[in-house]
Specification:
Length: 375
Amino acid sequence: MAVERNKRLLQDLLLNAENQACADCGAPDCDWASYTLGVFICLNCSGIHRNISQVSKVKSVRLDAWEDDEVKFMASNGNSATKAKYESKLPAFYYRPTLLDCQVLREQWIRAKYERKEFICIEKQEPYSAGYREGFLWKRGRDNGQFLSRKFILSEREGVLKYFNKHDAKDPKGVLRLEQINATFQPTKIGNPNGLQITYLKDNSTRNIFVYHEDGKEIVDWFNAIRAARFHYLQVAFPGASDADLVPKLTRNYGKEGYMEKTGPKQTEGFKKRWFTLDDRRLMYFKDPLDAFARGEVFIGSKENSYSVLDGLPPATQGNHWQYGITIVTPDRKFLFACESENERRIWMEAFQKVIDRAMLPQEYAVEAHFKHKP
């Protein structure tokens, strides 16, 4: 009888709005709970909690037997109260992962919260909040494709992230200005669970750098240090802006990536298979997903400025092996692409339409004016 009563009480707790989304990643269906922390969590996050068993002990809400005192503890805590405690000093710039984010981001977020208590003790945030960070990352060579150890220095005061080809070198091999940097985790593309892609603009073209660190905490600290430095840069650049306005600008994930076929500006050349990345309003294409530079870039504006995306290719088009075409119309010309499947075409078109439906910002008109359409 007690077992059944406790199950009903837990089910009632799950009906509370605060407990209907995972306390750590926001996923629905919180069928698991940490009975030492007092939070309801999803299946994926419960696996991470099991790895910090000295802090968190988990049970299935539906399948396991619960003691009376465990249920009382869940009732007196819950997701809102526990978040208020363990995220009380969470910096605005710190990346809060969702269910769609990679394993290393979600695991380090959970470890930072409950194991290291970084968002209760501000002094524990020094590795990413100090404005200066120095260390070694494995960086992929631009030409040879090998990952080699390189020294990186992030300096908020100088406004740069720089790296050195030799550990004792005085002059950096590369200097990335903070206002131009983006960073996004790419474990599948890089082939490492801690793989991070850093991009910046060089001569109005995007340059890719691929790095990783063996230690998950190290690479996530680097990622959040970049976000912290950009946050403070943007606070100076836009003094009237709120945190809510600035945080979405710190780093961004790509709208869509994958293979498509493309043809040239005359539309008489054969179609070639290329790797495409949609980064905000830039559609870039590469011969290989890990190329340092794009073979070409296309600016995608808004529908108010005569940009549109059409299903299919012009009737006379020839040379495409893949049958599922997309035409992007710009004020200057049409760009023709072909996808391998109908599902891929649908996802690409939704991603393009989302960009086209968004009104252009004043600074984007300047980007459009200087943009070079490369065939």
